[in-house]
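note to self: dont lose this again. the chain is below, predicted strucutre after it. 491 aa total, dont forget to put it in the shared folder this time
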Amino acid sequence: MIASSPFVARLVYTKPQCPGATIARATHPYKLKLLGESCEINGEVAERPLKLSSINFRRVNLASNLSNHQMNSRRRRLNTLMRVSASSLDKDVHYYLNNGLGSIVLLVATGVALIFANIAKTAPLYELFWSSYIGPKALNLSMTLHHWVNEGLMALFFFSVGLEIKREFIHGSLSSLKQAILPCFGAVGGMLVPMLFYLVFNLASSNGVMAGWAIPMATDIAFAMGIYGFFKNKMPTGVAAFLLTLATVDDLGAILVIAIFFSKTLIKEYVFLAIAVSGVMFSACKRKVTNIKVYMSLFVLLWYFLLQGGINADIAGVITALAIPGNSLAPIHSKAPPEHEGQSVTLLDHLIHAWSPWTTLLVMPLFALANTAVLIDRAVFGSIMTTPIGQGIFFGLMLGKPIGIAGISWLAINLRIAKFPEGMSLKHLGIVGLLGGIGFTMSLFLIEMALSGNLAAIKTAKMAILSSSFASALLGCAFMKGLPEYHYKKK
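---
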């Protein structure tokens, strides 16, 4: 009777506690509260044989099915609520990121680092924390937390930058020579002129530090775009594309400089292994492999081989990003918007959408916490204007960037090599030049590469970066605030 009953899944036979008893017990006691009567024999509790004939199995099965249906309904409602909440959170995060949240978080992290570095009781503890070693010694990965941020987490930042660069080359403003030529001229001017400023100050002095020549060449793409976002209603849409393209080319130039000029003593075996892994990556790209786990596994290997081979390991992020198939479609579940309205969402769009919150809200603030803890005293602050390295960096970013970006772009326009994007004028070009003077993240990274071991120069250089970037940002904001709201002309 039990075997043929619909309720058999709910009952199990158990060993009787009374001689000659046959007991059936419910596996889900909440479905059937009472199956038998209890009696006490010799001080022990036992169960009487269950009278199956007294149970209406149809009603029990119906109640059980109804209960299961209610539980499944609740589970579906909970899953739907979680998906809606996740989708809403995703939209909110990217909305705030597009409106300058990343810049605010980066500023807060910088402020926290400066506060800890300038309080007598916390300064030594803060320095001790970032100089603590962590990592497996067997793999030669025992590094300080400061080193892990600069060589490890920053590889993820460079991966995100590499994705942006590749997308711009395939689908964005760098895909067309006509669109790309003016910001490319601006970017070249924005790299060369600040370096010339630095060299002039340092060549003219016996105390010059020539190793820092590349420091003022970089623009912080996230910071510049974040500040621009606060005033985008006062600027033509072409200015945003111009600034993004310029900063992208600028970052590409900085990455090439790091890879070529700041490599350590090379270990051939690891370099060859890194080349082999890179070859496998680009082979996977050619075969249109879209499984991101494949690329991330190879990314970790490449990062390790570059680190051990004496090449800056952060370049692994850029190489991996460039190996991602550019025209492949995003996964079906992707929440990313397309780069341009009307286009399909690509794998690059999906990865940039997924990675940008992590790099902007975690990696870059951690980098700021680890690298901007500078003791602000009269000696360090005064050294900006009294030492050639401080003067070269400060004026290289503050004056060299606007002169280089605006000057070379203006020259290209007057020679009819290029032309302004629609609605853009010389005043907008000057503002872009000022925003280009925000050299924060990449310039701080170049300091660590170029001035390693020279503590006095590092302190002065960091203070010069913070001062010039802050001044450039304030001037850019002041000029943009003074502009009237931009009204687009309907064709």
